[in-house]
Amino acid sequence: MATVIFFHSVYGLRPLEHEAVERAQAAGHKAFAPDLYEGLIARSIEEGFEFKDEIGWQTICERAQWALAGLPASTVLAGFSMGAGVASNLWPKRERTAGILFLHGIAPIAGNARKGLPLQLHLAEPDPFEPEEDVAAWRQAAGKSGTAAEIFRYPGGGGHLYTDASLPDYDAKAADLTWKRVIDFLDAIDAKG
Questions:
Q1: Residues ≥6 apart with Cβ < 8 Å to 188
Q2: Does position 14 have pLDDT exceeding 80, yes or no?
Q3: Does residue 182 contact residue 120 with C-beta atoms inside 8 Å?
Q4: Alpha-carbon torsion 22, 50, 88, 123, what sign?
Q5: Which helix (H) or strand (E) holds 184?
Q6: CATH architecture assigned to 3-192
Q7: What pTM was estimated for this model as a whole?
Q8: 101 forms bridges with which residues in the sheet?
Q9: Tens digit of pLDDT for each residue in 26-72?
Q10: Cα(16)–Cα(80) distance, rounded to whole angstroms?
Q11: How far is CA 149 from the centre of its chain?
Q12: b/e for 44-68, b at 16 or more Cβ within 10 A?
C-alpha cells in the first residue's frame, strides 16, 4: 500500500480533504490530511487568504513538516491548490518520496527531483488562478526536470477547486475522473513497492 498525505487548500481542512483520505483508504492505501490552520475554516476564499497571511507561510510549512514526522520517507506528497505549494516546499527535503500530486495548483518542481519520479498535475481548463502562460512554463519545466510528469486538464464548467462538492466550482464528471486517476497513480506506486 502507498502512504499519501494531502495538504489542504487556502480554505483550511474541509470535507474535500476528508473525502480524499477516505477514497485513498478505501482503495487500500494509508492516507492523512493534517490541519495546517489548527481549526480555522474559511467561509470564502478571501477569508482563506487572510488566514494564510495571519498564520504565515513559514508556520504553515513547519506544521506540514511536523505532520510528516513518523511517516515513511516514501510518503506521497499531495496538495490541493495552496497545498500544492506546501508539498512543493517539503519536496526538496523528502528525496525518497514515492510521488507528487498537485491538485488544482501548479507549484515549483524541486531542483533535486529524482529522475523518473511519478508526478501528476490536475487543473481545470481554464483555471482563474493558473494562467495559461504559467501552465505552459510549468509543463516545460516538468519536461526538463526528468520527472515522469503527467498533466491532466479538465475543460468544462468546473472552476478552480472542481473536486470540491461544497463549492460552485464543482464538476462531478471531472472530479470522478480526477479521483480515478489519483487512485490509479497510488496503485501504480504501490505496485512498484
A1: 118
A2: yes
A3: yes
A4: positive
A5: helix 172-192
A6: 3-Layer(aba) Sandwich (3.40)
A7: 0.96
A8: 78, 120
A9: 999 999 999 999 999 999 999 999 999 999 999 999 999 999 999 99
A10: 9
A11: 14
A12: ebeebeebbeeeeeeebbebbeebb
Q: What band does 105 get if pLDDT is binned at 50, 70 and 90?
A: very high
Q: Which grid coordinates are listed for 149?
A: 510528469
C-alpha cell at 182: 489519483
The residues near 5 (Cβ < 8 Å, ≥ 6 apart) are: 31, 32, 33, 34, 67, 68, 71, 75, 76, 77, 78
Identify the three-state secondary structure at position 105: coil
Of the pLDDT bands very low, low, confident and very high (cuts 50, 70, 90), residue 156 is confident
Q: DSSP letter string over 57-89?
A: HHHHHHHHHHHHTTS-TTPEEEEETHHHHHHHH
Cell of 8: 489542504
